[in-house]
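Researcher: Sequence recovery benchmark, item below. Answer with residues only.
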């Protein structure tokens, strides 16, 4: 289980709140779901970690992340192709079972709506422009000619995943997808048509900013990634020997105002936002992750964001003097 989730739960317990914790990786295993519908009955019962709750018991929901559920073993099936097909079918059934649960909870108070968790980067950039924020010039294309024209217009480029960076496994090693700078050599090596990719103007930055947004408040941290060649393009290429300097940061009020406009347009109550301050003093919005990490901002800056999340959940429970918060 993610460590920040554990810390939020600790704060809920310390405040005397009640909760139910359902872990995505265990869905269909340690988490039990019973949903009965008919003309004369409508009942949902969820059981996890020794607690049982019905739909009526739950008032507020924090959707954190959606871990992959593993289907029960199908090793008894000898045919490899059939075994693979059944496993794939079971995975899709487990996924749809979880979405059934989310839809049944749709009228509850959510901190993060699972239906809003995947934020399209180009759509977010478009909404950011409408909200008054600066954004780097951006292009999704599968054409080398289009890319060459974009380079002439914007200069040096970076490329990143259109959705989310992923990890690939080979020989028990993990390989991550990072943001990379590309130049004329890489572009000339491309075929006339290639797999669609996202390219952006490479803005010269003074430092990067990670902002955790919660309940219309911005908790920001400056990351001095430019001081290390390893992290200059993507601070996630962590230098564990000599880590980037990180400090609490106050965004200008105008930028915070525009971020609130953006998050309202995107129907997000919380999220981790990436920005940068350019060497010419401008602020640029890069992207937002509705379920992004916030421990990396909380701990170095002493924001105690885990407590802030716990307080938000309890505050948005029914104000009847009896906490019924469910996570």
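Model:
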């Amino acid at each position: 289980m993610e460590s920040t989730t554990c810390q939020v739960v600790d704060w809920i317990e310390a405040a005397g709140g009640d909760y139910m914790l359902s872990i995505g990786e265990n869905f269909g295993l340690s988490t039990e779901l019973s949903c009965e519908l008919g003309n004369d009955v409508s009942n949902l019962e969820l059981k996890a970690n020794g607690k049982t709750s019905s739909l009526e018991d739950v008032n507020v929901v924090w959707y954190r992340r959606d871990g992959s559920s593993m289907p029960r073993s199908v090793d008894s099936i000898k045919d490899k192709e059939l075994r693979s097909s059944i496993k794939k079918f079971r995975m899709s059934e487990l996924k749809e079972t979880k979405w059934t649960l989310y839809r049944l909870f749709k009228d509850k108070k959510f901190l993060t709506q699972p239906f809003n968790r995947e934020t399209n980067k180009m759509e977010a950039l478009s909404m950011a422009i409408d909200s008054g924020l600066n954004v780097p010039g951006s292009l999704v294309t599968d054409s080398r000619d289009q890319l060459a024209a974009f380079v002439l217009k914007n200069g040096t480029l970076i490329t990143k995943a259109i959705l989310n960076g992923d990890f690939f496994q080979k020989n028990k090693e993990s390989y991550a997808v990072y943001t990379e700078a590309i130049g004329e050599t890489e572009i000339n090596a491309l075929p006339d048509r290639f797999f669609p990719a996202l390219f952006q103007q490479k803005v010269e930055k003074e430092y990067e900013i990670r902002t955790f947004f919660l309940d219309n408040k911005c908790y920001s941290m400056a990351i001095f990634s430019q001081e290390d060649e390893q992290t200059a393009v993507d601070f996630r290429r962590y230098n564990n020997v000599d880590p980037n300097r990180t400090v609490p940061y106050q965004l200008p009020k105008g930028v915070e105002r525009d971020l609130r406009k953006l998050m309202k347009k995107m129907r997000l109550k919380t999220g981790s936002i990436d920005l940068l301050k350019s060497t010419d003093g401008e602020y640029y919005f890069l992207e937002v992750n509705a379920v992004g990490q916030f421990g990396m901002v909380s701990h170095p800056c002493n924001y105690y964001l885990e407590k802030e999340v716990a307080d938000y959940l309890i505050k948005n429970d029914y104000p009847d003097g009896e906490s019924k918060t469910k996570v």
